[in-house]
Write a sequence for this structure.
């Protein structure tokens, strides 16, 4: 790997990066407060109340500093995060589930300190109160108990009868372990003998028991069922003491307060019970019901509780005496779908197709320049060849064109009913649009809102039968017999016909000059390349090569065919050779065809040396799937965007992260305006934004540094605003982006 890294550095040695371009090291670690990207399904709270771990369906586990609600570190998908997590009794170590092991982490630093390979695909974890044992229930429902200091298995219990969703609980003396079964029982094992000490049956519906918890004194066991009921058991006699009917849905967790005087059951609402009498004490509800709690953890002093919901990405801290919400945090705002540099490399455009806006950034400083709202939500976007204009197509058929320098709207068109599949700047300032609702390609001339010509596809064809060349000179439609017609957008004449079939799953792709067309199915297992003028078959590509074979230079992005700018056939062959066997083509290729960026394992992106045929740098730092990437025109920077909502800029020669750009609050800008003329200004010029370097230097809009914290060398956590005099240094963010 090192050899290839050196080779790549030689390829780009004409513009080396300085060693410390942003200034002296600060000794600080920046902590952006991004939160989860999906619903939270598990919670764990350290015994001292300082640390909270939340695991999400987004495959991440976040560790929070609870007193400040600060996101301190995050475990990503390569560790299989999000399924289960548990703190050691002393609060120093976090155990987290992984794909093939349980990993152990130092809580204060996020440094991995161990791995238990005997515990693959664990979906429930629990530490014994003496800190010696760790219990894990696997995906297959078997339960394994490991002596963590010794590193060997103590007990293994057959889990054939266990519920696939049941939790684990150790008794306070660490001698018993409890779990639930699919048929409504709770099983309690004696860890010394390995025998079942108690088999507790009390749920009339006989539905699965998914939640178990011992009282702090060990005298009671509470088990919660998917039928919405809880049974309280005497551990001395095995008798059922109380049956509790909980409002709402299945119970995933139950929890005793530290003093044992309360039992919490999260199910639509958070209900507090007196476990001695079995009576309801209080119900806590998040009106108007946006947060439906499914997990709960008491604070060590017993005055508060943290809840998470499998329907929300927010965390709530409750005051149990008043029933009020003390704090609400962690909710993620949006993801990013695409990224593109302007031709001069000085600006960067990011978009979220689930939002109502595009964001234009200054790629030389990291500052946000414009927020460009799109009524009805963004569907596609494009930058003109000279970088002076930006066009976006909406989900409802509207097309808007802005002046990229001023942010003023210069054109507004109605392409159809939407969504707009593509919008491309064509010859002579024409705008070419593809509308998925009407299945029509339209060509609009300068200064006209009405199209000067349209090309319609057959009524029953799928919208992906429409495509357009990169330069907007050619479009394709489908004929009634399934063949593909190629049209010149300049003359309106038919340029050729390519035989097809009536399989609506076939996707066409045009070469930039319109002379070749590739046809591939959505399965990407076979592709054919055709001469447009003659309709003759040029090449058939089978197997893995079908993923890359049909990708022409600067091919249209989006759709099942992926995106790449392959330059010439030689580069295409390089990509086929070095990336064969991968399920998707590269996200982007440098203009000289020597370096590619592709998705990697988990949340990483990977830089490939196409000449050497090997990966050279793994780009790790995102906390969500990498959706798109783009090289700067000089090939020295690559920008990646992710489900975590950030855009990261990396140095291509070294793979080093240079800066991160984030718009915390304006990824979903509400649009409730109309445009009365071409000179209407933007409704919102800029929103909140934040840019920071790995050293902790940052630039931001006023007040946006509340979304950034830093950890110092001693482990203390500070809001970035407290150190603004030292860290708010826009010039150092700009320096990080310069070669």
């Amino acid at each position: 790997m090192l050899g290839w890294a050196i080779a790549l550095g030689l390829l780009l040695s004409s513009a080396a990066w300085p060693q410390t371009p942003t200034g002296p090291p600060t000794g600080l670690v920046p902590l952006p407060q991004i939160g989860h990207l999906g619903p939270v399904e598990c919670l764990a709270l350290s015994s001292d109340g300082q640390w909270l771990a939340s695991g999400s369906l987004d495959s991440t586990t976040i560790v929070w500093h609870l007193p400040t609600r600060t996101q301190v570190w995050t475990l990503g998908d390569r560790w299989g995060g999000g399924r289960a997590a548990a703190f050691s009794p002393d609060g120093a170590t976090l155990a987290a589930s992984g794909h093939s092991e349980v990993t152990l982490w130092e809580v204060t630093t996020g440094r991995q300190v161990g791995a238990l390979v005997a515990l693959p695909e664990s979906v429930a974890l629990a530490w014994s109160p003496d800190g010696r044992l760790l219990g894990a229930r696997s995906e297959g429902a078997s339960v394994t108990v490991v002596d963590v200091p010794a590193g060997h298995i103590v007990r293994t219990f057959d889990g054939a009868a266990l519920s696939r969703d049941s939790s684990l609980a150790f008794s306070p003396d660490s001698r018993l372990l409890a779990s639930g079964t699919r048929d409504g029982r709770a099983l309690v094992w004696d860890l010394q003998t390995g025998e079942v000490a108690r088999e507790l049956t009390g749920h009339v519906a006989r539905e699965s028991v998914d939640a178990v918890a011992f009282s702090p004194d060990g005298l009671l066991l509470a088990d919660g069922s998917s039928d919405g009921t809880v049974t309280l058991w005497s551990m001395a006699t095995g008798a059922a003491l109380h049956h509790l009917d909980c409002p709402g849905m299945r119970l995933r967790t139950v929890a005793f307060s530290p003093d044992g005087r309360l039992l919490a059951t999260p199910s639509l609402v958070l209900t507090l019970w007196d476990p001695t009498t079995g009576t309801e004490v209080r119900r806590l509800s998040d009106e108007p019901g946006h947060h439906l709690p499914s997990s709960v953890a008491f604070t060590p002093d017993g005055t508060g509780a943290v809840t998470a919901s499998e329907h929300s990405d927010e965390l709530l801290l409750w005051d149990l005496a008043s029933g009020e919400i003390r704090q609400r945090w962690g909710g993620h705002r949006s993801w990013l779908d695409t990224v593109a540099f302007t031709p001069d490399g000085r600006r960067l455009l990011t978009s979220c197709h689930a939002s109502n806006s595009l964001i234009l950034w200054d790629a030389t400083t990291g500052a946000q320049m414009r927020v460009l709202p799109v009524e009805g939500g963004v569907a596609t976007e494009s930058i003109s060849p000279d970088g002076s204009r930006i066009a976006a197509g909406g989900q409802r058929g509207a097309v808007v064109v802005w002046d990229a320098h001023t942010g003023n709207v210069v054109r507004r068109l109605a392409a159809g009913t939407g969504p707009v599949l593509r919008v491309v700047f064509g010859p002579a300032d024409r705008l070419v649009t593809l509308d998925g609702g009407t299945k029509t390609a339209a060509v609009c001339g300068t200064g006209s809102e009405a199209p000067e010509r349209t090309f319609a596809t057959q009524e029953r064809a799928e919208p992906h039968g429409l495509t357009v060349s990169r330069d907007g000179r050619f479009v394709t439609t489908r004929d009634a017999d399934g063949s593909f017609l190629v049209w010149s957008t300049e003359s309106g004449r038919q340029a050729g016909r390519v035989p097809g079939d009536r399989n609506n799953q076939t996707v066409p792709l045009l070469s930039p000059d319109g002379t070749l067309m590739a046809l591939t199915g959505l399965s990407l297992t076979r592709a054919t390349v055709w001469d447009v003028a003659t309709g003759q078959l040029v090449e058939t590509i089978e197997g893995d090569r079908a993923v890359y074979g049909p990708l022409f230079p600067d091919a249209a992005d989006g759709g099942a065919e992926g995106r790449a700018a392959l330059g010439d056939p030689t580069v295409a062959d390089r990509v086929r050779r070095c990336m064969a066997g991968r399920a998707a083509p590269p996200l982007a290729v440098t203009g000289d065809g020597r370096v590619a960026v592709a998705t990697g394992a988990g949340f990483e992106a990977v830089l490939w040396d196409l000449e050497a045929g090997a990966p050279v740098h793994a780009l790790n730092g995102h906390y969500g799937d990498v959706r798109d990437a783009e090289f700067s025109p000089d090939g020295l920077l690559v920008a990646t965007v992710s489900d975590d909502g950030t855009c990261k800029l990396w140095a291509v020669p070294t793979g080093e992260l240079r800066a991160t750009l984030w718009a915390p609050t304006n990824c979903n800008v509400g649009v409730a305006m109309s445009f009365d003329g071409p000179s209407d200004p933007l409704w919102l010029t800029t929103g909140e934004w934040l840019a920071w370097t790995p050293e902790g230097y940052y630039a931001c809009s006023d007040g946006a540094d509340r979304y950034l914290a830093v950890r110092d060398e001693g482990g203390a956590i500070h809001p970035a605003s407290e150190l603004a005099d030292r860290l708010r240094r826009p010039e150092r963010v700009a320096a990080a982006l310069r070669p």
About this structure: The radius of gyration is 29 Å.
